[in-house]
Design goal:
Radius of gyration: 21 Å
Strand content: 15-25%
Helix content: 25-40%
Oligomer: single chain
Shape: elongated
Order of helices and strands: HEEEEEEHEEEHEHEEEEEHE
CATH class of the largest domain: Mainly Beta
CATH architecture of the largest domain: Beta Barrel
Number of helices: 5
Amino acid sequence: MIFVYLVLAISMFTGFYFYQNQIPKDEFPRGNLVVEVLDGDTFVIPGKQRVRLMNIDAPDMEHCGGLQAKQCLEELVLGKRVDLEEIIVGQYHRIVAMVYVNDLLVEEEMLSRGLAVFTGVKNAQGEKLKEVYTQVKEAGIGIFGPDCYQLENIKDPDCKIKGNNARDTGKKIYHFPGCSAYSGVIVEKFWGDQWFCTEAEAQKAGFVKSKNCYDKKYKPQ
């Protein structure tokens, strides 16, 4: 029993240490074989070790562009050997790192194809990645194209209620014509934003009316 407690204590200490510290790249093996891709920003190397791409966030699989992002990452790394740099081991021992296949920076390639969002994390490659992201977003490439990034409902123009997932607060808020700033609200379907035909539909999906709508009720035109 004492041995078990000792192992647990060492494990907890090690996890805390890695969570708080970056691992020097010369202390981590290079040329890691990628054995599985889980989604557009996470893959697995031997030992069932998960690695998440640093500085970017790809859509979840169920959202617009999620499948394409996963397929792109598979093309770039699956069955190949990757080098991990600026490694941080976070909670649950998941590695977050800048990932290279030879001289190709995988994060940059995902951004250049419009299949991920730059998260603004600062490191040696941060400004370069931010510039790529800005250019791709302005050009409307990938998830920033009309299928996933919308001011108007292309598929069903009569359904005008915009449901937004606020990633900073986790709140789900809906807006409709007549609400303040409605015209500037973007439906980012790659984050799970949705269109609704009625307030009842939005509320059933867990969205609440924006405070900018005041006491107004949506009246379909």
